[in-house]
Amino acid sequence: MTRTRLTLYDTTLRDGQQTQGVQFSTAEKQRIAEMLDTLGVDYIEGGWPGANPTDSAFFDAAPRTRATITAFGMTKRAGRSAANDDVLAAVMNAGTSAVCLVGKAHDFHVERALGITLAENTQNIASSIQHLVSEGREALLDAEHFFDGYKANPGYALEVCRAALDAGARWIVLCDTNGGTLPAEIGRITAEVIAAGIPGDRLGIHTHNDTENAVAGALAAVDAGARQIQGTLNGLGERCGNASLTTLIPTLLLKEPYANRYETGVTLEALQNLSRVSRKLDDILNRVPQRQAAYVGASAFAHKAGLHASAILKDPSTYEHIDPALVGNARIIPMSNQAGQSNLRRRLAEAGIEVAPNDPALALILDQIKEREAEGYTYDSAQASFELLARRALGTLPDFFEVKRYKVTVERRKNKHDRMVSLSEAVVVVKVDGEKKLSVSESMDDTGSDRGPVNALSKALAKDLGRYQSAIDDMRLVDFKVRITQGGTEAVTRVIIDSEDGQGNRWSTVGVSANIVDASFDALLDAINWKLLQDA
Amino acid sequence: MTRTRLTLYDTTLRDGQQTQGVQFSTAEKQRIAEMLDTLGVDYIEGGWPGANPTDSAFFDAAPRTRATITAFGMTKRAGRSAANDDVLAAVMNAGTSAVCLVGKAHDFHVERALGITLAENTQNIASSIQHLVSEGREALLDAEHFFDGYKANPGYALEVCRAALDAGARWIVLCDTNGGTLPAEIGRITAEVIAAGIPGDRLGIHTHNDTENAVAGALAAVDAGARQIQGTLNGLGERCGNASLTTLIPTLLLKEPYANRYETGVTLEALQNLSRVSRKLDDILNRVPQRQAAYVGASAFAHKAGLHASAILKDPSTYEHIDPALVGNARIIPMSNQAGQSNLRRRLAEAGIEVAPNDPALALILDQIKEREAEGYTYDSAQASFELLARRALGTLPDFFEVKRYKVTVERRKNKHDRMVSLSEAVVVVKVDGEKKLSVSESMDDTGSDRGPVNALSKALAKDLGRYQSAIDDMRLVDFKVRITQGGTEAVTRVIIDSEDGQGNRWSTVGVSANIVDASFDALLDAINWKLLQDA
């Protein structure tokens, strides 16, 4: 059976950036583009060249991708030619092979927001698309407010689509810009557009989540014949977000009637990276991943109800619509029951810790994890701290060294040039092999900048560990994440530290306290202990 | 025109409690039931009497509501009569006028999970429903796995529904228990069930969000003729959650074709409480509200894109599908480097700062915001810091006081009981009205717990500000958010502090530095300056 090809168009770097609180750096945009490319989307919309320095810089050094990196912009304004419009010129200057321009398809917006005639607007769209095509670019039109426009004035909305098509646009993307059109209406209107002569294989769909129907709206358009889907990773985007490709991709690949009927550029193998890609994006944004996100959320395959959990043990398909491994996710069964223990044993075995099925230490470890998670710890993203906790419970963690005390000072004052400067200083006292060692470090880096108290503490702690010193000399702190979370009744700070050594090993540890310096210190201690354990 | 009545069935207190990490207390269940009742849902499923002490206690002292408080349970087990099943007896003993029992409608589950014959299962369901009816209760059947069951064996799935109907069930609820059925299929199957003779006004729909289609699935069933919708507040529920009533209610009341065609027990007046109810539930659960939630999220009407923001200023309907006030939410035009001057002027005007359209200060302020956002600041969520920045640029910010220096010490050491304890101490030196003032505070709270260096600093800073002291006496720090972000080439810490005063004002300020204590200090300073400005 031949499957129809659907095209996936990602706009995380453009519409996704409209999420309140999201501001990508150029380097982050590059990392995200690479992640998208490993998934296998067809287009990556990189931003609006000329609109801000970050977007321009991204196109100046865009990564090499299989996907078509696409520049976004708007159609030329009235009163000048496409070739003489400086905003459009900046978009063209990004030099991408594909360019997507937004143009209005709703008469009300043309007259009210742009203040031009309908004919002028159609003309602006047509000549802008012609300009792209004459410069050898693949042209896409984002038909803004298409659905609202079609409901108000179907003739004009269709005229805009036809003008772009006749001018040579490869894709006309029907945008539900305000997110208010419900799926059934999106399906009906898309079918009417195709019946009016715009071929489905030239039509895209762009939906927003204002009624929680962005995914359903995109699917309804595909059902009606549209062949390109626009969306973002994790559903980032203006207001309530765009259609989530993180949800749409597995639905298209795994669920019927889509899996049998269509194909995309995403392979089943690449799909197994989906959960990781989703969480990596949240890492980059330092957002707390949504536990309940479809397919990729940490709770997406968590079976809390007792009846569900016991049936899952007999056969996972009783309460799972897909195998979580297909999207790189994992089943979670409450730690309290028997299944929790076999889960734990598997996780320990993965860390090279073999425990017999009925070892009482298993229950002890589960209890400790439960208790500490209630205090605000998380062991999902701090595997090294989890291993240390387990080894401590099993009595197999050596006492490498003991911390007797520490003291950190943070000071801000005027320097001799009458400028305010800050400096931190840390003193750590440890006992190694019966010998007491005092170390002191300050927070100044090589460039003379103050890196703060945790930096000073980290340096002091790693300064002199006696015979263990060589093992930690090549260790460095590569990431530091801080979250305020709830520990019992009080807000506490959770610090997760990522460390790296010279062999490229990378490990994560966690510390929790109402005192951020204390939480950081505990995570640092775990990081060093884990490293010493590897070398022991 | 007569509207058809749709029935809303809330299961926040039962299926919502299956959310990972959610564990209601009896008092919380009572508060939530009261919130649901002010909204106007028809049924409130309170839990499973007998399954756990909390649920039993809730029914013992259930609040008086307009809505029908409903007990949940399962149909009787094989090998005993309904009257002699102790699990069912516990459900009946809750004494509710309505009882909802779950029974399996999928042959695979009957045989695989229950290990009984199909005929026995049908018989268990029929006699359980008969038992409820004979005891004078309104009976509902949650037909578990109905859609998967219908796809595998439509005859048996329908047999279960008919048996319940014939036994006197008021409602047969078609459950997509595993959340894997897509909306189009839910619509088709619901229509087939009605065509097979089960009347639509006896049918309910219960969907889950495993493909992000719970809301769309519920709407598809209503389109096909089902007349009861089950869901939860904020979409709580097992795995990815249930259909969100927080989304479905405004969709049914405000969006076509639903608003014209149907009515519910929720009035337009009650709808204005929706955002408050949603946030109150998050408060009870101690969850961070989802900014991007449809209708009720803080970002649901936030217009970040420059083009959108300027059109919104002309006419809000250009980029809003409904008026946010209808659901008790509010429009936000965030500051960001994508915002234009008109956006900025509007934002300033809202803060009581009038600036002429072509004032050169506007460009200066935008430049400063751009520059600081590149350093890692964000003004989207720190309105008070934005106002201070603007006033500084306009030369209208008084110098209330000057910080000469500060010093914070964080120490961890053994106390006299040989236990490790931490304590922080902060010294702040300020100059007010030419007078130098030294203040010192430590981080211990009333309970003797260490709250860390930022707490100590905050207390020292607010300890003695001379003639400004009375203005800040009722100020308190209510939230503290920390993110590691990119400032230029270096990772920096961004701290956002939420403060509150005795009049219930709440404001947010931001600080950025590689040094977390410095970043916090700057955010604290802004918080105090903003407060002094209000009282000046």
Automatic annotation (TrEMBL), chains A, B:
Domain of life: Bacteria
One Pfam family linked to the record: HMGL-like
EC numbers on record: 2.3.3.21
Catalytic activity: pyruvate + acetyl-CoA + H2O = (3R)-citramalate + CoA + H(+)
Domain Pyruvate carboxyltransferase: 6-272
SUPFAM superfamilies tied to this protein: 2-isopropylmalate synthase LeuA, allosteric (dimerisation) domain, Aldolase
Gene Ontology molecular-function annotations: (R)-citramalate synthase activity; 2-isopropylmalate synthase activity
The protein's annotated pathway: Amino-acid biosynthesis; L-isoleucine biosynthesis; 2-oxobutanoate from pyruvate: step 1/3
Keyword match Transferase: yes
Entry-linked PROSITE patterns: AIPM_HOMOCIT_SYNTH_1, PYR_CT
Family: Belongs to the alpha-IPM synthase/homocitrate synthase family.
Identification of the protein by name: Citramalate synthase
Naturally occurring in which organism (per UniProt): Pelagivirga sediminicola
